[in-house]
Amino acid sequence: MILSIGQGLLMSILGLGIFMTYRILNFPDMTAEGSFPLGGAVSVTAITMGIHPVPATVLGILAGMLAGLATGLLYTKGKVPVILSGILVMSALQSVMLFVMKRSNLSLLNHRRLSDFLSGSGLPKNYDTILIGLIAVALIVLFLFFFFHTQLGQGYIATGDNESMAKSLGIKTDNMKLLGLSISNGIIALSGSLMAQYEGSADMSKGIGVIVIGLASIIIGEVVFGELRLGERLVAIVVGSIFYQLLILGVIKLGVDTNYLKIFSSAILALFLILPQISTRKFVKKGRG
Amino acid sequence: MTETVLELVNATKTIKGEFEATRNILDHVNLKVKKGDFVVVLGGNGAGKSTLFNSISGSLMLTEGHVKLNNQEVSQQKEEERAKYIGRVFQDPKMGTAPRMTVSENLLLATLRGKKRLFKNRQLAQHKEKFYQLTSQIGNGLEKHLDVPTGQLSGGQRQALSLIMATITIPDLLLLDEHTAALDPKTARSLMALTDERIREKNLTCLMITHRLEDAITYGNRLILLKDGKIHREFSQKEKEQLTVGFLAEMFEE
């Protein structure tokens, strides 16, 4: 249970990153499946090379931002459709990770991670993950909340909301997309970096299906809480992510082989995507009757 | 001498359709608009009115010829860059505002038209008073909806908001692209009256496309008639005063 909450917090950062593109710019950014494990790969490699975990985590974020920038350049300057741009970068990142780690996974055994700095604080086991998760989530939520309320952030939101209007008001929409994709993938890479440090290893295959998990956090939050203001929506993603991890925990408790978890991830997301439509249909019928 | 705000020199836009022959949808148009001019643009479907506007705003690039704003060559500038000179109201009420952002957020976006958007707080609260005053002058209840997403407003309210947004910082050139066409007659009339009032009050330079012949006669000091991508006829203020709806309608038939 505590484990799931901790994981839920770390993975909610992924959801917050995906929110920046999926809900503001209105497209699912496939780069996430590459930038998530990339963050882990870069940070873990850096730590094994003797770099302090804090700058190592920052390096992971920067790597993710570069990945997002690459997708953004393909999309805005190269005019490649955005889903395809993301897939191209995601696929290319497999080689990048192999180049960074020199193998498909890398262990952190006998190296210090972020959580080791908290071990002296007398926290019970696994609570260190929650504490790190809370700090990181708070930082990202505050950053996003602040960003969305800047002149720049408002231009970013307008770009996703009505691009032709945004252009007619002098908003450089291509730059906004580049900025959004970079920040988004930086945040996603942070999530990957923290997860890798929590699990004790980085693994190239960790990215498979993460976009489903990220979207699930966003959509569960929306279905459960309904209409919300911006700040509340960000918090709803965090709650949605924890809720999702608890659902998965429930599935495991039912005795399902953990090798088959991905189909349940997708099923949970599909269910929450379909749910609102069923309830509105019913509502419409009632209204008529 | 009054300064020239907009100048088109041999403005031409060629399209190469996949199944149709190459043709000029804008064909060597020459036009000078001076400060304070209010030019009404008439023309049938496919006459090139929208292409004319899109070429001026930069959402379309000319194949040949030049666009000059304030005597500066802007033919190669993108729409985002030309936005510092141009305020634009679109025909479709959905086009001119950001639907998920509130009325005041939209207005705030417009106050920064053509300016750098910084990584600093937008300070919406400081503008609220001014936004309230601006919107309450219109008389369609917009001031009560400052914190409502524009997606929930009526078409008339959105077009009025678009008009305010286009003129909240004084544009060198205002483009009105059939901005009353999607509205019911009563709402269209009051929006047109509001438009004229704002243009006079701020001495704006304006180009307006319309299909309402009465409006074409009532408003503006110049009238041009586009046909097949060319300026077919042009009427000065004096000539315009003699025009009748019947005469204009006949010209359309030609």
What key phrases describe this protein's structure?
heterodimer; A: 289 residues; mainly alpha; 2 strands; 75% helix; B: 254 residues; alpha/beta; Rossmann fold; six-stranded mixed beta sheet; 34% helix; ABC_transporter-like_ATP-bd (chain B); ABC transporter ATP-binding protein (chain B); ATP binding (chain B); ATP hydrolysis activity (chain B)
Largest sheet of chain B: 6 strands, mixed
Please report the first level of CATH classification, the CATH class of the domain at 37-49 and 81-114 and 124-253 in chain B. Answer: Alpha Beta
Percent helix of chain B, as a range, is 25-40%
The percent range for helix content of chain A is: over 70%
Q: Compute the gyration radius of chain B: what is it?
A: 19 Å
Per CATH, the architecture of the domain at 37-49 and 81-114 and 124-253 in chain B is 3-Layer(aba) Sandwich
- Helix/strand structural class of chain A: mainly alpha
N- to C-terminal separation of chain A?
Answer: 45 Å
Are there runs of chain B of 5+ residues with pLDDT below 50, and where? none
Low-confidence stretches of chain A: 285-289
Mean pLDDT of chain A: 92
Largest interface: A-B, 23 and 35 residues
CATH superfamily of the domain at 37-49 and 81-114 and 124-253 in chain B: P-loop containing nucleotide triphosphate hydrolases
Keywords (chain B): ATP-binding, Nucleotide-binding
Domain ABC transporter (chain B): 6-253
InterPro entries (chain B): AAA+_ATPase, ABC_transporter-like_ATP-bd, ABC_transporter-like_CS, ABC_transpr_LolD-like, P-loop_NTPase
Organism (chain B): Vagococcus elongatus
